[in-house]
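Why does residue order matter? Because the sequence determines the fold. Keep that principle in mind as you read this record.
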Amino acid sequence: MSVTSIEETNLAIEELEEEIRRENDRRYAFYRMLNATDRVLWRLEELNERRVKTVPGKLRELFLQALAEVPTSCLEAYRDSDLVQEVLDSIFEVQERLFAWHDPTRLPDEDYVEEVMV
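Structure:
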């Protein structure tokens, strides 16, 4: 095998690896975004359980960072408020929009569990 053939083969392998990486990124993007909204919900519900009514400023910043990958069309529903309940309600709306973004044929009242199982 010549040096040129080896170089061409290595280049072809690198291109295939990059294509696979891009496909995996695209495939799992929805699940990463959904996981980000779930993490924010978990923190908000934790505050709610402790009867905390306001979201600390630092936590608000962390929420925005966690949601950075969410498409703008979905994130428009997010309310960066200091009120726990307001932010909590908005995250549910962000998730609804995210599901619709992921699957435009999805009916708005479909069960969350059914979506995750798919």
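Residues 112-118 have pLDDT under 50 and may be disordered.
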